[in-house]
Amino acid sequence: MRKALRGLFLFPYICSNFIAMKKFFLFKRREVDLSSTAVSDSGEGLDVLAIPTDSLAFMTAEYGKILIVFNNSTIYEESNLIDGESFKKTSVYVSCEPGSEASLIEDILKFISSDRTTSNIMRFDAVLGKTTASKAIVSDFSDVRAEIKQLPVSRVSQKSSTNTFIGGTAGTAFGAGNTLDSIDFGEGNKPVIDFSESNIGHSSSNVNGWTNGGSGGSTYNVSSISGTIAYTATGGAKVNGLSTASAAIEAGENLQLANDYTASGEFTFYCVIGRTKDQIESSRFMGPVAQGPTSSNLLFLDTYDVQNFKILLSNTDDPEGAITIPSNRLIVSPDQTAYVFVIRRDADSNIFVHDVTGSVVGIAEARLAKPNVTNGDLIIRYIGNGTSNKFQGNVARLGVIERDIGTSAASKLALDLGKLYTPKK
After folding, report:
1. Residues 149 and 141: beta-carbon distance below 8 Å
2. pTM
3. pLDDT (tens digit per residue) in 208-233
4. What are the structural domains of the chain?
């Protein structure tokens, strides 16, 4: 009996020592902010991740970085997948000097296998630029990228899949789907407005209409045009800065919707604008591509400011209503010709801006009292110059989703648009 009791009291001691011996990886990409998320297909928003080292599946390398892959570290306990699809394991990319990839992997293996480490945590902190792995580089947030997948991928195409049997019938096994003109918006994210290059109406070399491909249908078709807007039938870096056709809108020109579109709560706005290198060198200013019935409704670039995003919302009774959102990345550059922007407002009226990299490049925290309130109505009447605020650019895609699709989905949308519309050099 005494021996049994001794063993019983030793059990907590053994467990506590086992836990103390357990080792962890700690990955920190950015400081946690309003755009941070617990899971992400692209890695955007997944800013802090801790995983026990005994979840390690394998490590491998690409030029200048290693890939660490983990078992049993996904957000789901079970999945119902369609044939040909799989969930990728949780993984983390860490940068290193080219040529030191194997050495970094060896450093990690030594940390895991050694019982004489000074700490049980191996850190990769891109915020402080510090790491306990001597061969790793963590000087920038792009040096650490963790991915916990929300969506499965097709094993053939390696693209994310949103196929589901939910809502399907004998004729449509996977439901209606939300793919419009090569962009898969994902379940529940079908745009109410989607102007794509394939729906630009034109006569000869001029635009004469634009059909809405979103769920709002003809309610938001372009009904009238001011000025003579050139139709660019083929894309190219030196043609319109894009890989597709576009509407070349200059100062004083606009396309007017048949009815004003108003978003009073959450929204996700996206657009693709092209500018050739020559056009950018002539003028780096693009201006607000979406404009409302008055000059107090603008989205999202200032006519004379290339360092900040600018948004003006309605119904705020705010004479100083412009919301200025500093960009942490150069907005316009001669080295870039295809510009993708995804702007979303969440349920709490915080506003986020993603660019072609998929990253969040600007945040406006919710402000419900004057000045600069973020909860006013978004009203769109014009594409281009509907008011005295000038816009110039080659527009290939523009749309609105009537909800905040979140950091991960917005990042994926920006990346997908970038892949589709960026011309080959």
Report:
1. no
2. 0.84
3. 999 999 999 999 999 999 999 999 99
4. 22-154 (no CATH), 179-421 (2.60.120.200)
